[in-house]
Amino acid sequence: MDEYIFCGWARGRFENDNGEQQLYYNMFVVSPVSTYVSDDYQAMGYKAEKLKCVSADVWSGLNPGDKVNLYFDSKKRVSMAALV
User: Fold this and answer.
1) Which of 58-82 are b and which e, b meaning 16 or more Cβ less than 10 Å from the residue's Cβ?
2) Using an 8 Å Cβ cutoff, are 25 and 53 in contact?
3) How open is the CA angle 73-80-6, to the nearest 5 degrees?
4) What's the pLDDT score for residue 1?
């Protein structure tokens, strides 16, 4: 399981296609890049990511810089973060 470094979060509302206000929850993390080399591409190191979360409870108790393991639901949203 990959470890992530928690960097912060954002939450708010946006207007969806039905004209209704919908809540969103995002988490910002840094994670390892899979080292990959081909004739056309190379990757190594870390990448910054914005991940969708199921609720604000996911980052409750986390502080920027904490190392976490993330667990995802069937829609690829973060459903739980556990300190490493």
Assistant:
1) bbeebeeeeebebeeeeeebbbebe
2) yes
3) 120
4) 63
Tokens describing residue 69: 């393991």
The whole-angstrom separation of Cα 73 and Cα 67 is 20
User: Which token pair is 44?
Assistant: 């190594």
Only one residue has tokens 């980052």, namely: 59
Question: Residues 15-63: pLDDT tens digits?
Answer: 999 999 999 999 999 998 877 788 998 888 889 999 999 999 999 999 9
Both tokens of residue 55? 């609720």
CA-closest candidate to residue 51, choices 70, 36, 32: 70
Q: pTM for this one?
A: 0.85
Query: Poorest-confidence range of 2-11, 19-28, 29-38, 65-74?
Result: 29-38
